[in-house]
Amino acid sequence: MTATAPPVLVEHVTRRFGAVTALDDVSLRVEPGELVGLLGPNGAGKTTLLSLVTGLRTPDAGTVRVFGGNPRDPASRTSLGTTPQETGLPDTLKVREVVDFVAGHFAQPMPRDEVLARFGLTDMAERQTGALSGGQKRRLAVGLSLVGRPRLVLLDEPTTGLDVEARHILWQALRDYHGDGATVIVTSHYLEEIEALAERVVVVGEGRVLADDTLARVLDLVAVRRMTLTLGAGRPADLLALPGVQDVVEATDAPGPVPGRTRVTLVASDADAAVRALVERAVPFTDLEVRGASLEEAFLSLTSHDAPPAPTAVPEVTR
Ligand SMILES: Nc1ncnc2c1ncn2[C@@H]1O[C@H](COP(=O)(O)OP(=O)(O)OP(=O)(O)O)[C@@H](O)[C@H]1O
């Protein structure tokens, strides 16, 4: 380990599982004190990336360094706290006993009362973990990752399945810990979670980094619109070439298709420009609907192009 090495350095990493390439030539450098959101749909490769950083798995190609050291080396991992997607707690141990058990592994652990207070669990100290709600268990699991006062915290979907209150307590605890100087990486497929936490967002899709930018710019990037319209006869060959259009999909939800007409959905980064172009080119269309795309649709349109388009501010049309 070296004093100046970044908390996380991933260089040209590829990781396969049989025929599946979970990560394909991925590079990522995280600087001290950053709070990074890893955003991407199911199966994008987020968990695999974290498992390489925690040293649970090794890459097939490329290198991974944690504070300059090999994450497989136990010395590198003493600076690292992590909570995987699923955790098991010993049902019959009390909350305070579980915290004390983990604290016993560290020379200067965070005091038990502080851990419990940060995660809103002070009143639960005497309760067996088996009697906690799902949200309380999850808060305890994330709290345990901080007991050793790690400089780097890696959390895989920390609030999936939690109610709003539990989610907000957890987010606040993470923001506070980050405020104390820690580097934090959080994976999620919820844009809301990433918006609440991250300053920098890395979008992962199909094993590749699709975007790596500030939260504001990534929000612009995924703020695409879905334009659905019915085209008359003589459909133009290349709707994809229209300005502002990123993707073209045949709509399958057209109510009662009319013979000779096609219902089409365009995924557009700039719906206004696309509509103007349709009109200027005298494309015969009817029943135009424009609405915000879901995050999944935005990911798909990013994934379907090798180079993501430059972020553009998208004016509000209709939602
Ligand atoms: N142990 C494994 N054996 C086989 N395939 C795997 C294994 N782990 C991951 N994969 C595959 O690698 C790809 C990436 O999976 P990964 O779990 O990293 O994605 P993810 O972005 O974390 O998804 P999710 O949001 O669902 O957790 C997927 O296609 C997955 O099926």
Explain how this protein is built.
This protein is α/β, with parallel strands linked by helices. Helix content is 28%, strand content 28%. It has helices spanning 46-53, 74-77, 95-103, 112-118, 134-144, 164-179, 191-197, 215-222, 271-280, 295-303; strands at 8-17, 20-30, 35-39, 61-66, 80-83, 152-156, 183-188, 200-205, 208-214, 225-231, 245-250, 262-268, 285-292. The strands form three sheets. A six-stranded mixed beta sheet has the order 5-6-7-3-8-9, with helices on both faces. A four-stranded antiparallel beta sheet has the order 11-12-10-13. The chain is elongated. The model is unreliable at 306-319 (pLDDT under 50). The site of adenosine-5'-triphosphate (ATP) has 12 residues, from β2 and α1. Residues 17, 20, 22, 40, 42-48, 189 line the site of adenosine-5'-triphosphate.
Secondary structure elements and their pairing?
Blueprint: E1 8-17, E2 20-30, E3 35-39, H1 46-53, E4 61-66, H2 74-77, E5 80-83, H3 95-103, H4 112-118, H5 134-144, E6 152-156, H6 164-179, E7 183-188, H7 191-197, E8 200-205, E9 208-214, H8 215-222, E10 225-231, E11 245-250, E12 262-268, H9 271-280, E13 285-292, H10 295-303
Parallel strand pairs: 3-7, 3-8, 5-6, 6-7
Antiparallel strand pairs: 1-2, 1-4, 8-9, 10-12, 10-13, 11-12
Helix pairs in contact: 5-6
The site of adenosine-5'-triphosphate has 12 residues, from strand 2 and helix 1.
